[in-house]
Amino acid sequence: MNRSEFIKTISSATLATGLPFPIWSLKSNECSIAMFEDMAKDDDFVIRDIDTFMLRKALFISVELNNGIKGWAEAMPNDKRSSRTLIEKTLKNYFEGTNIFDVEKTWDHCIKSEYDLGPGGLLTYSLSGIDCAVYDAMGKVTQKPVYELLGGKLRDSVEIYASFTRDVYPTPDQAAAKAIALVEEGYKTLKFRMRWGLENQDPPNDNTVDFARALRKAVGPGVQLAMDANMGHTQQRAIALGKELEEFNLTWWEEPTAPYDYSAIKAIVENVNIPIVFGEHAYTVDQIKHLLTYGGSWAVNPDLLKCGGFTGGKRIGDYIAEKRVKLVAHNSRPSLSTVCMLHWVCATKMATLPQEFALREKAPGAFDCLTGFPEFKNGRLYISDRPGLGVEVDEDQVRAYDKKYTK
Ligand SMILES: [Mg+2]
C-alpha cells in the first residue's frame, strides 16, 4: 500500500466511523483499517465545486467535496478579478470531478496544459489558492494537520518577521516610530519595503539610506533588520547603493534589481557585502533552479501563494534541501496565507529563517472571517495540531464581504 492509498484508506475509515478523532488512534494496523475500507466511497473525496469570494483585499477559495466537507484557502490577489475569472472559467475545470488525493496529478495536468498562460504570475497565483484549499480538505477528511500531509512537522513554532512599507510610513521618522512599536510587540526581525517597483528604476528621490539609518538607530543593534528594494535599481546603482548600506548591518537586502536579470543579480551578489535575497518572483522549481544557477541568492524567498501552493512549494523545498540553500518564506498576505505558509515552513527542512508577516492592516476584514488563527507570542507563531489548516472560516461573513466587494 503506497502513501496515497494509505491516506485514502485511513480517510474512508475515519469518515465511516463518524468519530471526531482519527480511527488510527484506536486501531493502527492494516487489518483493522480494512474493516472500514468499504464503508466510505472513494467518491466522497471527489471535488464537486470550487468557489471564489471577493474580500476587500483578498480572494478566498473554497473547495467542496461530494461528502460536503469544504477546504478553504486564498489565492494571490494582486489582480483578484482576473484571478477569479481564471479560476471560474478555466482552472476549476481541471479540479472539479477529481479526487483530492490525486492533487499532484491534477496540478501537473493543469499547469502544463495552461503553460501558455504563465508559467508564473496569474496562473500560479490562482492555482495556489485551489491547491491550498484542496490540502485543507485533505486534512479535514484524514483528521490530520496539513503539515503531516507534507511529510511531518520539523518545528512547533516559527519566528515571523514584521514587514512594513514606505507606502504606509513615508518618512524615515514615521518608519522608525513603527519599528519601535513592532519591537515592543515582540518582533525580533523587521523588514522595510521601499516599494520602488520595476516601473521606477533608480528613482531620483531614492532615500533608502535615510530609512536604513533611521531604522537601525531606532531599534539598535540587537534587532535583525532587512530591507527590500522591490526591484528598484539597475545593476550599477544597486552595487553603489549596496555599498552605502553595508554599515547598517542588514540581515538581508531583498530584490535590489529585476528578478529575471540573472547577470545583474550575480554581479550584485559578488560586489555587495550584504546577504542578497531573491525568489519571491520565482514561481516554479525551474525558476528557483535558474536563479541559483545563473544569479545567486543567500537564501531564497518563494511565496506559497505565488508558486502553486503546497504542491509547488513541496517541489521547491525538496530542491533547496538538495542544494542546501535556506528558505526565508515570503508571505505578503496576512490571513489564510500566513496559516498555509506556517504549515509549509514547519514541514520544510531548509525553512530555518523567519517567515514574513505582512501585518493585519494589509487585509482589512480578512481576520473577521477566521477563528483559530495561530497564537503569536514573543515574535513567533505556534502551529496547531487541528485538522487541515486548523482554522475555521465563517462562510456567512465571507459571503457578505463577497456581495459587498464584487462589482
Ligand atoms: Mg520582496
Automatic annotation (TrEMBL):
Entry annotated with the keyword Lyase: yes
UniProt-recorded Gene Ontology molecular function terms: lyase activity; racemase and epimerase activity
Mandelate racemase/muconate lactonizing enzyme C-terminal domain: residues covered: 172-275
Keywords: Lyase
Keyword Lyase set for record: yes
Highest taxon, organism lineage: Bacteria
Protein name: Galactonate dehydratase
Species the sequence originates in: Flagellimonas meridianipacifica
